[in-house]
Write a structure and sequence with these properties.
CATH architecture: Orthogonal Bundle
CATH superfamily: Jann2411-like domain
Shape: elongated
Number of strands: 4
Number of domains: 1
Radius of gyration: 21 Å
Number of helices: 7
Structural class: mainly alpha
CATH topology: Jann2411-like fold
CATH class: Mainly Alpha
Distance between the termini: 51 Å
Strand order of the largest sheet: 1-2
Largest sheet: 2 strands, antiparallel
């Protein structure tokens, strides 16, 4: 993973509905190493982490630098990254120095870094990855590029990476829903406008 992946985990976890274990698995769908191993205990633990991420992101969106420092450092303190180099998972990796022909084996290995011990519960690594992603996102983008969806029925946070920095919605779906509702309201308000069926 790179820092952009950690930031993605931050936003996915903060915006996830964590009502059930399946909801958590859906939020972690891009990371089967976590999604396939989550337990009810992970769900319980990550609900608390989710709320702390949302508190930190709310501070980011409002530009409250003191709260951003307090909330983000609190997350990093509670879920410190403990980087570990890994070459693969599930026993499918032989860490010999050479293959049968005597050549290097590194081309067959899946080198990557975990932010917690690979044997730790998924919640441990997900929380550390989300805390690290938030901190790295703030370092890279400052406080000006973050937002909260303008759709009244959505509470999702997002990072605005658009060129003009005018993103208002977390997704095209929310933007379309809001624009269609506004269009219908304008049409309804017009004299002799269409009457919506009841």
């Amino acid at each position: 993973m790179d820092n952009a992946d950690y930031l993605d985990i931050t936003l996915r976890l903060a915006n996830a509905d964590l009502s059930t274990l399946d909801d958590l698995r859906a939020a972690l769908h891009d990371e089967p190493w976590w999604a396939d191993r989550v337990t009810p205990e992970d769900l319980r633990d990550l609900r608390g982490t989710r709320q702390r991420l949302r508190d930190a992101l709310a501070a980011v969106v409002t530009g409250d630098a003191a709260a951003v420092m307090r909330e983000t450092n609190g997350l990093l303190g509670a879920h410190p990254p403990r980087p570990r180099l890994s070459a693969g998972h599930e026993g499918n990796v032989e860490l010999s120095t050479a293959d049968r022909a005597g050549g290097p084996v590194s081309a067959r290995l899946d080198w990557h870094v975990h932010v917690a011990d690979v044997d730790a519960q998924p919640a441990t690594e997900v929380a550390a990855a989300a805390a690290w992603g938030l901190a790295q996102g703030i370092v890279r983008h400052g406080l000006e590029r973050w937002g909260r969806c303008a759709d009244d029925t959505c509470a999702a946070f997002f990072l605005d990476t658009s060129t003009n920095r005018r993103k208002r919605f977390c997704s095209p779906r929310c933007a379309n829903r809001t624009h269609v509702a506004a269009f219908r309201a304008r049409r309804q308000a017009e004299p002799g406008g269409p009457v919506e069926p009841v």
